[in-house]
Structure formats: C-alpha cells, structure tokens
Amino acid sequence: MLLPRENTLHSLRDLYRDILGSMYEVEEIDALWRYSLEDKLNIKVEQTQLEQPILTESNLNTIILVLERLVTGEPYQYIIGQVEFYGCQLKVDKRVLIPRPETEELCELVLRENDITKPINVIDLGTGSGCIPIALKSKAPAWQVSAVEVDEGALSLAKQNATLNSTDINFQQLDLLSTYDLPIMTYGLIVSNPPYIAEKEADTIKENILVHEPHLALFIADEDPLLFYRKMLDIGQTSLEKGGKCYFEFNEQYGAEMQELMTQKGYSDIRIIKDLSGKNRFAYCVWR
User: Fold this and answer.
1) Cβ(263)–Cβ(286) under 8 Å?
2) Predicted pLDDT of residue 184
3) pLDDT at residue 109 tops 60
4) Count of CB atoms within 10 A of residue 172's CB?
5) How far is Cα 88 from Cα 52, in angstroms, rounded to an integer?
6) Residues contacting 81, CB < 8 A, separation 6+
7) Which of 35, 140, 161, 212 is deepest in the core (most CB within 10 A)?
C-alpha cells in the first residue's frame, strides 16, 4: 500500500504529488488532495495544520484508497460517488456521464429565457444522471418536468437523484431512435444534451474519460453525427405546442450543420449560442 513518509498532511500532499505528477498539474493534484480530505474525512486544510500528525491509521487508509483509485485514472467524482450540479447534489457512478459545466450553462440559458413562475411542460431527452430536469425543477417548481432515458441503470440513478433533491420528475425508459411516443402529448420546452462526440474524435478524448465513462452517453457514429438532433426535431414536430422551444447542447464542430438541420425541419427563430469558452455549444429553435 502507498504510504506517506510521515503522518502529516504535508507528507500526504507530497505523496499525492509524487504519485499523480505524471497525470495532472500541481494545482489539480493539490485540489484533489484537499477534496479527498474534505469529502472523505471532513478535514478542511489550514496552513497551520500541514505539519501536524493528525491522521489516524483509519483516516490514512481511507485516503490512500482514494489515491490508489485516482492513479488508475478513475474520475474523482466516481470515487466519492457524487457531484454538485447547478446547486444540486447528484449521485454519480459508471452508469452515467459526469455532468459538465457546459450543461450547467444550458440549464442557466433555459431558466433565463423562460418564465419560471408559469406552468410549462418540459422534457429532457436522454437524461443520464437526471442533472438537467432536476436542476430545472429545483429552480422552476411550477414547471411540469419529464425525462426519458434508454439505459435502465442510468434511469434508476436519475430517479434516486430526483428523490435526493426533492424534485418531482416524470421519468420513462424510452429509446429515442425507435419511438415518437413521449409521456405527454404536448410540451412547451424540449431540452437535451445527447451523445455528440463522433467516434473518429475518440483519440482527442482524455484516456481516463474513455476508460471510465459510459460510451453510450458520449459517442455517435461518424456517418451520422446529428442523428439524435434529427430525431428530436422530428419528435418536436408532433410533441411541441405552437411556439414550443428546443434547447440542445451540441458538438462545436457542427454549428452550420445544426442551423441548416433546424431550418430544414421547419423551425424558426434559430440561434447558435456560444458557451463561456466562446465555442458554438447550444442550439435554439422554435416550432412554428
């Protein structure tokens, strides 16, 4: 088992740096060290504590197990089993993709542009951990929020997360690519962050993501990278009320193609919206 030279926080930090030095920058390593202490042992590190021998054998064993999983490339969020997303605490494991900051931006966009006090039927297509519908419902309790997901394991975890955050979400297991039958007849909003990384882009993805996160939630076939968006726009034609809106997160490389697709499908008020990094990340359109 890996062990620090001394029974101090300073020595434990050095061990983190030694073991993870080839994988992360020093700032990231130190953050992981602090998170481990806070999340696993409820120890908030102060500078004056660094040289104090305050770790019990049990505490040390707990932290070393975290470090041994980190060195395999396993994401920290899976190790502690949770992540904060838009003010909500969500359980995460290998059944679901770890929610990204860009998806928080998507939720912020939807909430900012729509009346959160007015009852609206909202559906998230391909919900994964349930992060989108839970975030929306937590900030807009007047909305009637539904979500669908093809994977049974992910759906089970999403339901747990909804309960954990006291949000009433209508979940349903559904394969978007084989049905038009949504839980409610008409919606005011369709929201989705579907798989959008083309398989040919796999070599640009960090190895720890490829090894540990579910490919079903990440990748789409090279020959049809807009498959899910085409299907969802088709669904919107029959399931959106007049003036109903779509908000999608998508691959920055396909801005022009997304705009053309939404036009072809008969939608109006089309916008391609940049994320905080300046990348084309969100698509918006309105059903006529």
Assistant:
1) no
2) 74
3) yes
4) 15
5) 34
6) 91, 92, 93
7) 161
Claim: this prediction has a pTM higher than 0.85: yes
Token pair for residue 222? 């090279």
246 pairs with which residues across the strands? 190, 285
The string of pLDDT tens digits covering residues 203-222 is 656 666 555 556 565 556 65
DSSP string, 128-183: TTTHHHHHHHHH-TTSEEEEEES-HHHHHHHHHHHHHTT--EEEEE--GGG----S
Cα angle 166, 172, 177 (rounded to 5 degrees) comes to 135
- The DSSP result for 149-161, as a single string, is ES-HHHHHHHHHH
Would you say 136 and 107 are in contact if contact means Cβ atoms under 8 Å apart? yes
**What is the per-residue pLDDT across 6-48, written as a single tens digit (0 to 9) for each?**
777 888 889 999 999 998 899 999 999 999 998 988 888 765 4
Residue type, 78: Y
Range in 134-143, 205-214, 247-256 the model is least confident about: 205-214
Q: How many residues does the chain have?
A: 288
Cβ atoms of residues 240 and 186 within 8 Å: yes
Burial per residue of 219-258, b for 16 or more beta-carbon CB atoms within 10 angstroms, e otherwise: bbeeeebbbbbebbbebbeebbeeebbbbbbbbeebbeeb
